[in-house]
Amino acid sequence: MSVSYMTHPLIRHKITLLRKEDTSTNEFRKLVEEIAMLMGYEALSDLETQDITVKTPIEESVQPVISGKKLAVVPILRAGLGMVNGILALVPSARVGHIGLYRDPETHAPHEYYCKLPDPIDQRQIVVVDPMLATGGSAIAAVDFIKKHGGQKIKFMSIIAAPEGVDALMNAHPDIQLYVGCLDRELNENAYICPGLGDAGDRIFGTK
Ligand code: PRP
Ligand code: URA
């Protein structure tokens, strides 16, 4: 598995604002969307193109375009939903799947409650989005599910990751490409990322 850590100052700046305890729900949502778009720009740099003929005011010319139908964005619910519009701003005709998982508060193991993917999925470039990669349990379960349904070309984008989550995902799915906005120090005893940003789902949706 390849892991790319974002170094662009704009991404790092926005992640710093995201971490602040006093960032409002409204600002938090906007930042998550903007960071997803900036990370998406990097993660999609190898997107396939096809040539079409266009007529400029001067002459006909063969030029590349991307096919949005070939891309599927798959948020892990809930917090991943906050990143979807950032990717759709880049590729508006991409398809969107959903994987509903929540972490058991005691064991931290992921529980699946809803999954729906674009069909067929096997030829698509899939971009799974979730702001937090903590133990890696949710990410591994999501990629397991996508592979079981035939998904092959899988990228995973997380805004903040713990070293434990990166290692776990790398061991479970060495064939995927991982994009991380910032690698944090460690997990605490409740499997929250330190310094992290708290509970991403609660901060995006204003719940507690
Ligand atoms: C959060 C986050 C990830 C998961 C990461 O979701 O959005 O999906 O935890 O933790 P892990 O790497 O240890 O699995 P959560 O389960 O809190 O659900 P929510 O998005 O609905 O709040
Ligand atoms: N899920 C979150 O939302 N935050 C963490 O720090 C860990 C898991």
Automatic annotation (TrEMBL):
NCBIfam families, per database record: PRK00129.1 (NF001097), upp (TIGR01091)
CDD domains: PRTases_typeI (cd06223)
Keyword RNA-binding: no
Inhibition and activation profile: Allosterically activated by GTP.
One Pfam family here: UPRTase
Name of the coding gene: upp
Residues where uracil binds: 193, 198-200
Source organism of the structure: Ruminococcus bromii
Keyword line: Allosteric enzyme, Glycosyltransferase, GTP-binding, Magnesium, Nucleotide-binding, Transferase
GO BP: any one term: uracil salvage
GO CC, alphabetical: cytoplasm
Cofactor note: Binds 1 Mg(2+) ion per subunit. The magnesium is bound as Mg-PRPP.
Name listed for the protein in its UniProt record: Uracil phosphoribosyltransferase
Positions bound to 5-phospho-alpha-D-ribose 1-diphosphate: 78, 103, 130-138, 199
GO function terms (MF aspect): GTP binding; magnesium ion binding; uracil phosphoribosyltransferase activity
Cofactor: Mg(2+)
Stated family: Belongs to the UPRTase family.
Reactions listed under catalytic activity: UMP + diphosphate = 5-phospho-alpha-D-ribose 1-diphosphate + uracil
Domain Phosphoribosyltransferase span(s) in chain numbering: 6-207
Record EC number: 2.4.2.9
Signal peptide, first to last residue: none
